[in-house]
Hints:
alpha+beta; globular; D-amino Acid Aminotransferase, Chain A, domain 2; 2 domains; binds pyridoxal-5'-phosphate; D-amino Acid Aminotransferase, Chain A, domain 1; 14 strands; six-stranded antiparallel beta sheet; eight-stranded mixed beta sheet; 31% helix
Amino acid sequence: ASPEATGPKPFGIFFADATELLALPAGATPTLTRVDPETATVSVFDLGLIRGDGIFEATTVWKGTPLAWGLHLTRLQKSAQMAELEIPPTEALVALTDEVLAQMGEVEYAQLKLMITRGADDSLSAAPKDAPLSIIAMVDCGKEPREPEIEIVTLDREVNKDSAQKAPWLLLGAKTLSYATNMAAKREYERRGAQNAVFITLDGYVMEGPQSTVVLREGGRVVTPHPSIGILHGTTQQELFAWAELTGLETAYEEITKDRLFTADQVWMMGASSVQSVRAIDGKPITHDIDTAIEISEFMKTEREAIDAWTAA
Length: 313
Ligand code: PLP
């Protein structure tokens, strides 16, 4: 069928009631307001808009299941703690996303995003004084999956490997809505003809991509930078570690120097339960294997029970 015949893919935007969610009784269904994407509005006083002051999580929905959503909500709570934001408990957020997906109907493949901002800036004279958090869920059924094979570049990130500990106000490792620098890095790698990038610290250590975690396979070992270097603890990386251990590979969090990217047997970039095989870095071809990347992405869709049991352990 032509795209005209199937029509536009469904897209859902839902506003939740923060006050209700902060005190939602167990088993209750949260109230949601589904808004028309064309006319949906966010307050001009919202700190998420004015300062990027908020946090979020995003994942892939596959056959109705938001993949690794428990890991995402654990990270959301960590981001909230780092940003000193009091958000609803995880059980209430699970009830919220369950209801969002129920209202969406049958979803084969989509991106689910949950955003929580600090609400209205009450230092502005006209802002509502009691506006709590803004909580918005978005479901995009028209988004394309990540490409399985890519080229990347390395980009300097002007922090050291211990900056996250020394300067916690940088919020390194929190998934905040302030993604302006991540998007600037994306424009830079695109300008250089690549499809992703890896940030390197001033002292020469591998961090993460602007929207991805990086994992290396070196012989029978699978390694990734320790989150304490000031990166997100990737949910896809945790799922990949489940695959690796079930396949008989050893896994570890380590300090990884930049040179190891070029000598690894495989460099993977990943996010939202999808894995990409890197074929070149800074224009230099590296060893890679696209079939395994595709196999791991499939594993993340089909072996949920094994993954959830492994990541919960
Ligand atoms: N690092 C950053 C900065 C990200 O934005 C993302 C999001 O996709 C990731 C890593 C990968 O995280 P996850 O695998 O949990 O989607």
